Structure formats: structure tokens, C-alpha cells
Description:
Layout: E1 18-22, E2 26-32, E3 41-42, E4 45-46, E5 54-55, E6 59-65, E7 68-73, H1 78-86, E8 94-98, E9 103-109, H2 113-120, E10 135-140, E11 143-151, E12 155-161, H3 165-177
Antiparallel strand pairs: 1-9, 2-7, 2-8, 3-4, 5-6, 6-7, 9-12, 10-11, 11-12
Amino acid sequence: MRDPTALRTLSSPNLxxxxxxxxxxxxxxxxxxxxxEAPIVLCGQGLxxxxxxxxxxxxxxxxxxxxxxxxxxxxxxxxxxxxQFEASPSMGGLCLVDLSxxxxxxxxxxxxxxDVLSKGCGLDFHPQxxxxxxxxxxxxxxxxxxxxxxxxxxxxxxxVPRSYSSYLHAWLMDSALEFQGR
Length: 182
């Protein structure tokens, strides 16, 4: 199997989209099976409570469903984050699973990024419908994916099961070639 870190980046002056694999040190999933009495706190910050909300910073937290969060970090190890949860009094009814080796993240940016994304799923990527700082769990190119709108350039993150990383990379590169020369 090809090393996913060896995937080439699609970027050149005449291509309106850049595709790159994003290194992630830690990827955790937090699931709650009961309504917490108080906001859940991690590293001194309350986790987002509404689906689609994001908590940014050194630790990115995406609320992907009611009582369901993806937590990723380039700085913190999974053991560091688990210790933070174990010290939290609001831990009742929660399950934390380390998925660090199970997911791959891609960054897609450039003026045609929305057009490329629209080819792969039914989400509306218009800035009013999917503003900066929002995420959604969806199927993209027939792959279960979490998409996050990072900034107005526009720039998006796509997190997918690692076994699909080569397929998704090839799909994004092929789709972006259509917009060459614009």
C-alpha cells in the first residue's frame, strides 16, 4: 500500500485549487449517551453544543451530531487529552475513543474549491449556507466525510477514513483539473 504522506500536492500557478494532506497528531471521537448536566470542558474550554459548530485553536473540536464530537490536534497527544477528560467532573455518560490512526485529513483551497466540493456531494457550499467556522458530516464522493469550512479564501478540511485517502486524493485532483485555465 502506498504511504499516504507521499501523496503529491496539487498546486501550480495555473490551477485554481490546492489539494494537500494535513498532518494530524491526535484524532479522538467523543460520544455522549446521556444529556450532560453541565457543559463538557476540555483543556479549559467548553465543547460546542450545536451540530455543525466548531471550537478552534490548538485543539479543534467539531460537533458532528447531538452528543458526538471529533477532536483533533497537531500539538496534543491522545494521552494528554485523555488526562484532561479524566480530570473533568462532567465525564459521566461519555466515551472517548482514539482514532488517530484511522483518519486522514485533506485541505482544499482556492477560488474553485466550492465548485470541486459541489461535484462530490449535495451540501450547499455557498458562504451563506455553509459559512466559515461550520462543519458537516456527509458523504463525499461516496465516502463518509466530515467537511469543515476553515476560511474565506475559500479553504476546507475533509476528514475521511484513512483507507480511502488515496481514492479521495485522486478524486479531488481529477475534479480540480476541470477548472484549470479559469
